[in-house]
Design brief:
350 residues, alpha/beta, 14 helices
Length: 350
Amino acid sequence: MTDTAPRPTLEAVAARAGVSRATVSRVVNGGDGVRDVLVERVRKAVDELGYVPNQAARSLVTRRHDAIAVVVAEPETRVFADPFFALQLRGISKELTAHDNQLVLLLTEGRDDHARVGRYLAGGHVDGALVFSLHLDDPLPGLIQRAGIPTVFGGRPGWSGDRQGVVYVDSDNRGGARDAVRHLAGLGRTRIAHITGALDQTSAADRLDGYRDVMGDADPRLIAEADFTPAGGERAMRELLDRCPDLDAVFAANDLTASGALRVLRESGRRVPDDIAVIGFDDMLPVAEQTDPPLTTVRQDIEEMGRLMARLLLRDLDRGASHGGSSGEAADGTPSSVVLPTTLVRRASA
């Protein structure tokens, strides 16, 4: 065994800097009212001694834990298999790291997990929460509201009830879907099918609405429900080919769904795009550039969505610390929710 060197204390830093313990505490905890020359002396002493603030004690002063819960309303098998979540988490992590905040990842597999997450959020362990991939019957919004912590949602809220003050970041799912279907129609395709995502999520419902905006009273047999997974895309594509063998285009709700559809089309002997054109949604490069053929898709900036979610939450926390509360509005009174634009990325599949 080896002896452990004693941990530097506030008193030691104060002695090294030649200031009071209270001055060191104000500098370390981000307080005001300390002259610049003293701030520099304290910071130099902190660096020389390797002082690390005690988080529990610091929280008593700042009332901040510098920890943010990231709640993904999906089982771990889905989260770690879908690159969408990796991209969004990367954006969140970059923003939190830049502001010296810790990311606490919470996943939900079932109702027991919802209760566990609700207890954790209400327990005062984190300053706020970032929540995404919600389903319409998900109890998380109610649990979070009861926990009383600042929250930013990923995706347009779809639950019923009071949404006043709800802050979210989303992409223009409906507009992106319209662009995709218009592109297929512009190629001369007339039997355009749609493979949906999970329709208990607003992103899938919005993309279906965008499809219908362009197609109007399309043959209902041209719409097949899936779940944003490759396996769901395969099942839906087989259904469509059985029901409508003369279809000539497919708009899939995301790139993973499109990848499954492409496999079925290849197995059935259909040529893409000669016989059937295919468009996805997301533009996840590990998927879209590696399909056969490379996938035309609607790009949404997934990493930027995560970064903006974290930025909005941290801004709200900072404002709450300054003014004794939090708000769902920016300083100029405008809603702080953000809907990012989408763009069509053309590749070989359409």
